[in-house]
Structure formats: C-alpha cells, structure tokens
Design a protein that fits this description.
mainly beta, Jelly Rolls, Motility-assoc_lipoprot_GldH, six-stranded antiparallel sheet, disordered N terminus, signal, four-stranded antiparallel sheet, 1 helix, Gliding motility lipoprotein GldH
C-alpha cells in the first residue's frame, strides 16, 4: 500500500511539472501603462513610454497596440490620440488615431469588469507587423479630443507583442 502511494505521488509530481514548466518560458509581450491623474486627461499631460529592444529581438516582428482603460462614465464611443514615436535613430513619427471604443449595437468593445473597461487596439497592420531596430523606442501619447480635460480615462499605454 505504501509503495502505491509513492507511485501516485510521483505521477502527480510529474503531471504538475508538465503544466508548470512551460509557464516559465520567455514572455513575448511588453506592456507599459501610464496613470491619468484624477482620471482627467488634459491635453498638456503627454505620458511617455519607452521600450528597449535588444539586438536578439530584432529578427522578430511586432504588433503594436494602444491600451486604454476607462470607466463606464466615459461619454464617447471613440477617442482621438496623437501617437508620437521616436525610434532609436532619433526619427520622430506623429500619427493621429481615431480609436473606436464602442458601437450602438455592442456597447463597449473592450473587456470589462464592473464599471471599468480596457481596450487593446492594434495600430499596426495585422498583415505586416513592424520590424524594430535595436535600441530604445519612445512613445508619447497625446489626447487630442475636443473635451479638455477628457474625463473618466484611467490609464493609457503601449503594448508590443511578437507576431506569430
């Protein structure tokens, strides 16, 4: 009987290891978010988010997402953001984006819990992910909505995912 218990516990340990070891792999997602003070995003507040791309990561392609977290009290179905991107070579690109957050039929398009909603909106082409050079990329996010300050926005950020 004692030998059987040892055998069952060995199988249990082996089974548990099979599920936990793959979880220790390399993470292929980089995400950084900035908190909006008092959930009121002024056009003067332009959070800057930086990512360092290592030389071994330059062979990969990346999908880039804007991350927005807001409360249910947010008044609009969209948000206009100007994304300033500075590459390691110092080249700056400005991209005004009109990001859809809700529709009349579906309501909020992001995932929600209670009265907080999060949107991850891809801003790169799904068919042509970005190839990034080694070095530091800086993203500055600017609110360009007519309402200033823009109420009920909690966080904004950038997410990089390695394309598959």
């Amino acid at each position: 009987m004692k030998k059987r218990i040892v055998t069952y516990s060995s199988y249990l340990l082996l089974l548990t290891s099979c599920f936990l070891l793959p979880a220790c792999g390399k993470v292929d997602v980089f995400e950084r978010n900035a908190t909006i003070p008092q959930q009121s995003w002024s056009s003067n507040f332009k959070p800057e988010i930086a990512f360092k791309i290592n030389p071994e990561d330059t062979l990969n392609r990346y999908n880039i997402f804007i991350v927005i977290r807001h409360t249910d009290a947010y008044r609009y179905k969209n948000i206009w953001i100007n994304v300033h991107t500075e590459s390691p070579g110092g080249v700056v690109n400005n991209q005004p984006l009109n990001l859809q957050l809700a529709t009349d039929n579906k309501g909020w398009l992001g995932s929600g819990m209670d009265d907080i909603f999060e949107h991850r909106i891809q801003i790169t082409s799904p068919q042509n992910p970005e190839r990034l050079s080694a070095g530091t990329y800086r993203f500055k996010l600017e609110n360009i909505m007519r309402e200033d300050p823009l109420k009920n926005v909690m966080n904004v950020g950038i997410r990089l995912e390695k394309a598959k």
